[in-house]
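Example record used in the benchmark description.
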Amino acid sequence: MMSKTWFKKLTERVFLPVLCVVLLLTPLIGCAQAADTVTARLRPDYTIIIDGAERDFYNAAGQQVHPVAYDGTTYLPVRAIGELMGRNVDWNESTKTVTLSGTRTAAPVAGTADTASRAQDVSVEVRSDFTVIVDGSKRTFTDANGKTVYPLLYQGSTYLPIRAIGQLMGKSVDWDSTENLYIEGDNLEVLKLLQESYLGKVKMIYIDPPYNTGNDFIYRDDFAMSGEEYSEESGQVDENGDRLFRNTDSNGRFHSDWCSMIYSRLMLARSFLSEDGAIFISIDDNEVDNLKKICEDIFGASNYIATFPWRKRTAKSDVPFGVSQDYEWIVCYAKSDKFIARVTGTERQYFETPDYPGRPWRIHDLTTQRTAIERPNSNFTMINPKTGDKYPVNPMRTWAVTQETFKDYYEQGRIVFPDDYSFLNISRPAFRYWKEDDIKKAGEMFGMMSASTKLPDDIGMSLDGTKEITELFSGKIFSYPKTSKLIKHLIDMSTKTEPNAIILDFFSGSATTAHAVMQLNAEDGGHRKFIMVQLPEPCDEKSEAYKAGYSNICEIGKERIRRAAKKIATDNPDKPFDGGFRVFKLADTNMTDVFYSAGEYDQGMLDQLVSNIKPDRTDLDLLFGCLLEWGLPLSMPYTSEKIEDCTVHTYNDGDLIACFDENIPDTVIKEIAKRQPLRAVFRDSSFADSPAKINVGEIFKMLAPDTRVKVL
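Model output (structure tokens):
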């Protein structure tokens, strides 16, 4: 456990404001910081060590091949990618294309078991101009400094940098164009990081948190405990003072632990919601009452919308007390009273008749529930001016018009008598409504109706959710997820009038919510964006998921999104939707850790201060770290270009321009300033000395006075 003396010493360091580890999101494209990191080392004899084990690689003829060193970068044959992924490798020499499929027949590592197969084929094509096409999309690869590197032809074989292996192992999809996000990490820390970027921008949140069943997976939380002795004696804290718990029903704080876990996350979640947004939370009987109390405290009792009962199974016979509890609950709260749920309504029947061409109309009951005593002015006999037929009033249900207003309504064509239209088959006068009036009154809500707590019959139960994901993976990879139809229905009712909404799920599990968002977009042409957040909880080594090659839940979730997107695109070939996603992983700060105060450094330690940025961080790591600091969304488009051999990154057409190269010349600085971005970012080592850094400020004052300049 963290000692008090250590903490006191920490506060004496050089950077006083930094009293805890600073976290950021690391983009998982062009970097080896993937969830299943590949560590590769080249020995002088050209043997290769991958994750601590020596690897041999072979060409199409089964002959052993070796990597090649080129300009200081180590390259591996394209075929080696398949071998690292544990796949069969089919090489087409004429097209320079390798297709990976199934489980590799020969183990790539002598003496060890082969890795399990990946979920989908990967096609890698190296073109004559050395561009790389992966599954039909152009891909670029970067070195450890974030600079673009190219494949290399060597003795008739195509080689790619070792770092490209991680980039090909199924991380992000359509990185450059997608607006969807998948984030790996503890959702509490992720929500803190995203708070500024997505404050008030999320229309709908759906979460399916771990139910308090006594066998929840582990979260790293710092609960407000009544005393340190309880945790120390029960062994529930680690050496850093963080609490690691598996909340079993034998725990004396069984309910309070779960409530503490969910409370902190819901507090942050509320700030993400737009004023007309809402949160939907799936829960069972164990904590539904406590959850409502927590939500009332956070969202307010007046913003309680409803509790939707979801039938999870058919009745069981062997149950306590002889009662089968077949339902779970979806508790819903709004950010404010501006939230309005809508579903597609049953289409009203309108008529078009020759007497009113081009003006569709419908009829409605012309009586009210008020009595003749309550509405004496409506207590009269209605007479048809054309026929003289009389229609006495029902004294217990009077007319909706008065004797004085009847004439005006009749002249406007609003009163319809039984003899007017034979197809109506009515026996008493009715009131006519024009379709144009309905549209004007309903506005964007026309054709919709209020949602019901009775969920549609076709949304399915738990077994349907399992069947759905099993069919996607051709195997039982994940048990009892919610059905995508259930979540799609909730998203639909929440975003009916806002098809470009952002949907957040920070307990994303197998990514059913992402599946539902893509399906709904394909069906109604919407452009909803999703943000999935999931703790990379390891899969049990005995599970089918682990045997199939999925080391943690995040790998399952990302693969489900890929497979679901492919299936949706196949089922809806003429309905485009965003099936990509950018993957980020929670990491520590980009800045170099400082462990000593200024007085504790000696001459031999000064080389540690040459750079204030960690050596393994890429341009993208720095770029997206800046986006979080400035509160910018992570889903906007960006481009990279070369200006005088310097790599310049432009985010969202000028919201931010960054260059992290060493010793950037003034001509490049001036070119960036001429574009007048809202923000410009450089690193400290981008300038040769202090006068050069000062000169940058002067250049921007002259060419882009409104640009905010930041130096890391």
